[in-house]
Structures are given as C-alpha cells and as structure tokens.
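Hey all, sorry for the wall of text incoming. These are the two entities for the joint prediction.
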Amino acid sequence: MMAWKLLWRSWRGGQLALIFWSLVMAVVVVTAVALLADRVEKALVKESSHLLAADAQVRTSRAIPDDWLQRADDGGLKTVQMALFASMVYSGDNNHLAAVKAVQSGYPLRGLLTLAERPFVTTPEFFESVNHGPPAGEVWVDSRLLPILKMELGESLDVGEVTLRVSKVIVEEPDRGGSFSLFGARVLMNWQDLAASGVVQPGSRIDYRLLLAGEDSDLANYLAWLEPQLNSHDRLLSPDEAQAGIADTLVQGRRFLILAGSLGVVLAGIALALASRHYAAGQTAAVALLKSWGVSARRVRLLYWQQTFWLALVGSLLGLAIGWLVHESLVFLVRELLPVNLPQAGWRPWLVGLATGMLCLVGFALPALWHLPSLSPLAVLRRDVPVHPVSAMKRLVIGLLVIVLMLLWYSQSVALTLAILAGLAVTALAVMGPGWLLLNLARRLGNRAGSVWRLALANLWRRRGQTLVLLTGFAAAMAILMTLVMVRTTLMEQWRWQLAEDAPNHFLVNVAPHELDGVEHLLADNQLSSVGWYAMVRGRITLIDGQPPSDELVEQNNALRRELNLSWTDQLPEGNRVEEGLWWEGLDNFAERHGENVAPVSIEEDLASEIGVTLGSRLTFSVGGLTFDGVITSIRSLNWDTMTPNFYVLFPDGYLEKYPRIFMTSLYLPPEQKPFVNTLLSQYPTVLVIELDMVIERIRSMVTQVTHGLELMTLLILGCGVLVMLAAVKLSMAERLQESAILRTLGSTAQRILMVQSVEFGAQGALAGLLAAVGAELALFLLQRRMFEAPFGLHVELWLWGPLIGALLIGVLGVLYTRRAVNRPPLQVLGNLDI
Amino acid sequence: MIEANQLTKEVTTSEGVLRILDDINLTVADGEALAIVGPSGSGKSTLLGILAGLDTPSAGVVRVNGEDITAMTEEGRAAMRARYVGFVFQSFHLLPSLTALENVSLPLELRGDANATETARGYLDRVGLTARFSHYPRQLSGGEQQRVALARAFASRPKILFADEPTGNLDTVTGKTINDLLFQLNREEGTTLVLVTHEATLASRCHRRVTLRGGLLVGDEAALPGTPG
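and here's what came out:
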C-alpha cells in the first residue's frame, strides 16, 4: 500500500517515466516480435503445407492400406487420397498424354485451388478459389489442354473408359510445386470416377498419395505410428521438406526477427539502466531523509523492491498490450498488401514478453537501485557523504548476463547469441579506447578554436567518464541500427537477387533438334528470349567403379532408378561452382591416362555424396542401350534458385553428340504474353511447357510478407535508440542545468549557451556515429559470416552517414531536451538543485 | 536527555588523520534549547550528526534517554531516531515530487499513522500554509519551503528536534519569521531543541550556547535571561 502510494507520487513527479517507458519498450519490442514471428512462422509453415495441400503427405506406389486410413481417422486427422498417373486423354480425334490426378472431394486439405471459367486468363477478377476438387463426372484441366485437344470448356473428355465433362480450367494448384515431373497437362478428376476409368490395372504405374491434416500433436502421434511401416518406396513429406528454398526462407526470416527483437531489448536495456541510474541518483536524498526519520534499511529495500516490481508488472502488461497493437497494426498493413490470413499466436509470445519485462527489471533496474538502502542517513547533513553504488563493472556483468540469458532463450542458438554479443563487445571496445583518444584530440583542437568550440569540447573532455559511457550508449544504439539496416538490406538483396523480377518463369522441354529453329523463331517473333538452349541425352548410371550399385543404394536413390538428363558444355554454366577437382580446361592428358573412349564427368555434389562417388570414381552410363564410361573429374555445387536449367551430370563437348538428343531452355514470359504458351503448343504439340510463374508468384508473396514484417522491427529499434539518447541526456541534466546557470550568471547569452550545447551534442553524435560505423562494420563481418553465409565487403556508406546522422540526431534531440536548462532562471537553478 | 561523553571523531584524509571533534562532553536537558555555534569547519554539523545518531564517533559515548546509541547497530539507531528525533535542515530537503501536504504526511504514513493527512493539515495550518497544501516545493518560496519542513518535523511529535542552520538559506526577514515559528512550536510542543547556527541572534534565543573551535568545545554559556522566546 505504502509502496503503491510512493510509486504513484514518484510517477506523478515524472521521475519514473523513462524507466517505465524503457521497460515498456523492451516488452513491446519482444512481444511484437514474438507475436509476429510466431504468426508469420505459422503462416509460413501453413504456406509450405499448401505446397503439399496438407500438413503432411505420404507418397507410395501401392494403394493406401485401409488401416492407415482407419488409424488416421481414429487419430482425429483429416485424410484425402490422391492417385497420380500419366494417361492418354482424348477429345474427338485429338489426344494428349496428360498428368492425371484423381482426388477425393476433400482435396486440398490446405491451401486453395484457383479456377477460372475461361482459359489463359491472368486477371484475378476471373479467378475463383475453392477448397474442394471437381465433382464426380467433371474434370478441371490446365488451360493448355484445350488448344492441344482443340476443344472448348463444357465439352467432354475421355479418360480411359470414362467420359467426363471439362467444366473449369485450373489457374493454380497448391501442391503443384516446382517439380519438373509435370510434363503433361493436368487433368484433375474425382476419385469416384477412377474405378470406372479402368486406368488402375495390375502393373500400371500409379503414384498414390495420402494427404493428412490435423492438430500438430495428433499428426505427430500418427506419423510416429506410421513411419516404421513405410518401406523404401514410400516417402513421407512434411512441410519442411516440401521445398528446401521455403524452409530456408523460414529459417532466415525467423533468425532476422529474433535478431531484431534481441537488439531492441539490448537497447531498451541500456536505456533502462541509464534511466535507473538517474532515478537512483535522484533518490539518494529521499532515502537519506527516510533513514534520518528512522526507517530501517530493510524497510527501505522492501519499499523500493515493491515499487520496482509493481512498476515492472504494470509496464510489462502495458508492453504486452502495446506489443499486440503494434504487431496487429503491422499485420493490418501487410494484409492490405497481401491478402494472407495469419493464424492466431499461441501463448508463448505472451510469456516471452512478460518474462522480458521482469528480466529487464532484474538485469538493468535493480542493480542501479541496489545501494540505496545502505545509504548513510548522514547525507541529509552533508553533501559529501560517499555513495557506494554497485560498481559499473558489476552492473555491466549483471546486465550482460541477463542479455545472454534472454538471447539464448529467444534464439535458442549459441552461435547467434555469440555473434550478437561479439558485436556488442567489439562496439564497447571500439568506443572506450578510440573514444578516449578522439575526445582528447578534439579537446586539443578545441583549444585552438573559438570559445564556443573550446567550451563545448572542454565540457566533453571534463566529463570524459560520463561522455564515454554516453558515447557507448549512442554508438551501440547506432551500431545496432546500422547493423540492422545493413543486414536487412543485404538479406533483401540476396532474396531479390534469387527471385529477380525477370527470372525465367517457363521451362520448354522436349524440343526435338528439327524443331529448334522453328521454336527459336517463334520466340523471336514474340520478342521473347530464352536463356539459351541446353541439349540433353537421357541416360542411366548402370555401374559404379565397374560394379552394379547395391540394391539398397538403388532403392535409396531415385537417380539410380531413372534416366538422368545428361548434358554437355565447354563453359561452366552460370550458377555452377566447381567445389572439388578441375573444370575441363584444367585436365591434362585425360585421354592418355584413361583412354580415348572414357569421358571426363562433372557431377553435382549432393548426387555424388548420395550415390557415394568421389573424384576419380568411374561411372558407366547406358544411353539408348549403348554404354560408355566416364571418370569424375569435378564435383559442382548448383544454385537452383536461378531458375535456369541445371544438370546433375555434365560432359565436355564431343562425347554425347552421337546419341539422340532433345533440347530444353527456360525463359521469362511476361503475364500479358501468357497466351504465347497456347500459340507455341498449337504449333509444336510435343513440346512440354512447365509454368514456373505460378510457383515464383507464390514464393515471392511469402518473401514480401516477411519483408514487411521486418520493416516494423526497424522502427521499433529506432524507438529504443531514441530512449537510450533521452536517458543518457537526462543522466547529465542536473550538471547541465548548473553549468548553464553559472554561465548565464557570468553574463553569457542564452544563444551562446545553446551554441555550446549544440556543438557538444553534435560532436558527441559525430563521434558516436564514427565509432558506431566501426562497431557495425565488425558486427556485420561476424553476422554475415555466421548467419547469412554471405561474402563480406566494406560498407562505405556507414562511414559517411554514421557521423552525419549521429551529429544531427543527437545534436537536435540533445538541444531540444536541454533547452530548459538554458531557459530556467539561473537563481532558481542554483538555489534549488533538485534532490 | 542527551548526554555525550568524551566524543572524538577522526577521519583519514590523504594528508593523514584529521581530528574533527576532540573530547567533547555535553549534556542537553529535556526541554532545553541548545545552540551549537562556531566558525565554519569547527565540527558543528558533525557533532549534531553524532548526537542525532546519524553518525558514529571514533571514540566516546552518546546516550539518548539513557540508551547508549553509540553501541547500537545502524538498525537500532534507526529505531531510536524513529522514536525520538526530528530534523530541520538548511536546504529544507523537501521531496520535489510531493505536495506540501504529502511532504508533511509522509513520515507519519511511514510509521502507519491512520490520521496522517489530518495531522499534516493541522501542522500546515499552524505554520500558516493553509492555502498551500497542494503546492509542490518548486512552487513555494524558500521561506514557505522551510515552513513546510518545520511542519513536517513537528508533525511527528519528536522529543528532540535537531536543526542544522535552519535559516542559513533564507534572507534575514524570512529567517526571522522562521525562527519565531521554530521557537513558538518548540515551546508549544515542549521539544528538546539542538540547533547548529552561525547567527548570534538565533543562538541568543536558546537557553544555552556551546561554542566549538577546531573540534574543541571552547565555551558553554547560558543565554541572557528572558530568552528563549
């Protein structure tokens, strides 16, 4: 009760505002980040589950056993069965080898099917999104099937022995993905029509899929039961595996959110520590007074603990509320840009927010107040009674400890925690040492300058201890901001580069040599250009080092079961990198060492490790019944994100030319030229077109979603930075008030004092900016190497903008905040120094 | 009653040990008003601090109401101060975030006085600040602030009031008003008063005046008849 009364009075007196808002800010940042991360993460998982049209998918070549379905049903999971197969479909005299997918009516379990009533439409107003498959008796097909079969919507299509009506065209199919397996046009039919079609015969190649959706725990239980029963031909797909690129996006997005949140807390923590120090200094007299009245040290401690506890609790609750508002308003903004419904957050973000408030209190506020109860009551009589606050070193250690704890908790990564801490440590070191030297230098230069400069720089030097602490605060804040901005832009550039606006969005496959010129002309006539033609030969690896691969290896590796696209080139293709061995030109006397008929082979690194081959391994290839040998001379890594054709196995020119070959390429087709697919297919019906634009659009939408999430983080960090500045200035306020009063008493004009202050703050800001650039550069070095695996380069812009922005920001803020020091009548200040 | 025997206070400075008080013997009777005078640095405030239990001597004993406060722990002395002692300071020591009324009622609230606010009002009335209850210290003149401090000191009904240069920060006219008020309240409440001052007029209003010089008690004289008042 007494504590509440005291707390309320202190609050009313404005002494707690900075402490309170720093704490609130820490909680706001963390809560907003945690809520957002939680929801975005859930959304991303959901998005990636859209790529499966389910939460998990089992792929098998046998019919789904009944007990799998029964068990899933018992376990509270929703299931949908699908069968995928290639089948000739007919309309009148025309036919096409279509990619047929028969689905139960619940398909898709996650995500939506986008349909249209007209082929090749690209404007969303013609789209219709549904969460079910076609009714029995109907099929939905890819637009391109219509020109291939010279038919219209509403007409009939024969699939096997059943005749179905083509009622709609498919614009987007959630689980189509970027797979290259989709060679034929899609025909989506109802599961009930499957039996009547007569397609399912003993020995027919059908890909069965079981789609599963439900609560995480139910799903986990089910998969734990199912997994032991899967054989080597069955495959279980979870969202994480659905697409590696999206999993990467998810990981990077989450890391960034954690990074932003942690840095926000560190800043708010610094502000809180500074504000608490100021508050404690202001409480010295009050505590001495209480003690002179006979209030015991124990009671004083209790009173202050209770006050800080209530303050932290109220602040944390408010922080949770504001954090929710902040994240909600961001989500609203994002919603405008991207109509994606975010799932609701769980309880963890709230716990994280609340715990942050309490930890901040323990780590940053309490150490500054710790000494108050032990103050001597004699201070009421004598100003020179020594005060023994917890040493700066101890406070630093406690603060760091709490920061480390929080970082570890948020990131659950020792490496990430260490990287952030290293950035902080480096900044502190980069400030204390060079800061001292620079201050000294500035003072010496100031001695030769005009009186305003001399006074301002002498002030900085005289208060060098404090100035260095403030510099560290400013510089750390700015370094963190700079680091953040740079990381964000670096990250974005990386993403943007990966998914460039004009990245190829269509693959043309199966172009016969005699069609090449024709297709090329058609492209040119439509002002389109491909990334170049890649010739390929389809062949199989039959022997490894003269031995047939073991059954086990064959079972595990699809690459050993099917025909691979073998290609040849003299130039190392773009996006390829030789990781081991040498590219062709580096090979000496290859023919002499291995014989005329043996080809050098360059193999992709993942395939190499999967089938257990290394440099020098000998592979035997079978192409159209003919065999030849190759020796691995290089192992390459590929960048799959470039959306250009990539090959697992490459040969030099001259080895594969004698085999029958086909060509493939990729190209960028602008949305308005989408009907070109139609034109192409009507003239070259055997050419296969893979439409990646849909896949790209989906990935881009997710990247945009994350990007906007990150914008708000930066704003919050900025708010924390300003708090640090205000707290730092406030800490030096009493002294500034007195100085200004003395100067004015000695006849200085208010304008002149303002000038001195602008120079003092400006110089401090410029120094902070300069030092922050050093710190940020070093932190970036670490972060880029450890987190983003990006190459490092100097960031010249930091060194230019850092000092300039620092001088302006701190100069303006400082002068605004200390203006009252100049404006207060000197006698009032001198006669009544605040206790 | 306050009794000090052979009080010595030494502090260690960079130039060696400095003796601030040297073998002080002093007794203050209940209800007595004692002025401690002497030049700056003579040890007046140090003596006041030790007598009030805010500080401890290097040697010697202080008894308040027969209890040896020099042998007590800090907590014990705190309890003693809570029972017997009130203060008035040169720089008022009002808490800036509290109104006049709250400044006066705070010590009462801290000791759990249910009528803290009422009592505080009464004392503020007595020092003539009825119209200033909800004013903050920065809105009050120096004289008014010291009146609030007087109200606060007396509101706790201390047996002994220690005053450290109570008019040191005030002009002569205001100082006189404060002095009048101090002695008036002191008389009405029957408080023992120990005050440190530079001012001869203030000292002369006390029953007794002791003079310190260089840490030594060099004079102990009764004031002129007809005082205090």
